[in-house]
Write a structure and sequence with these properties.
This protein is mainly α. Helix content is 40%, strand content 5%.
């Protein structure tokens, strides 16, 4: 994400294609959330609950992700690359390299004559 993998071909019209309308802006989304969620409304009880949650979070030990991966026998990649560093990925995703997304969702490489 930080290296811009999702910025290739962005922004897209996927939300409008799937939902039939454009995406909501953040303010509209936040207002709808506050209007429908009782825990999002300011009040003494909710503020007390938030302070309790914060204290519990500060006192909880952080997760050792390496130990979790080892315990669950996750595959460890010895020589992994970021997708943005992969020549194959860039060639099949970058519009400057001839990538044209197909309307049906399948990627198509443009052929130059």
């Amino acid at each position: 994400y930080r290296r811009g993998a999702f910025a290739v071909n962005a922004p897209s019209g996927v939300v409008a294609d799937v939902a039939g309308r454009g995406p909501e802006d953040f303010e509209t989304l936040a207002r709808r959330y506050v209007a429908t969620r009782p825990e999002a409304v300011r009040g003494f009880g909710n503020r007390l609950q938030a302070w309790r949650f914060m204290a519990r979070m500060l006192l909880t030990r952080s997760t050792d992700f390496d130990a979790v991966e080892k315990a669950r026998d996750h595959v460890r990649l010895a020589d992994a690359d970021y997708c943005g560093d992969s020549e194959t990925w860039r060639r099949t995703h970058d519009p400057a390299a001839g990538f044209v997304p197909d309307r049906a969702g399948a990627p198509v490489l443009a052929v130059s004559a």
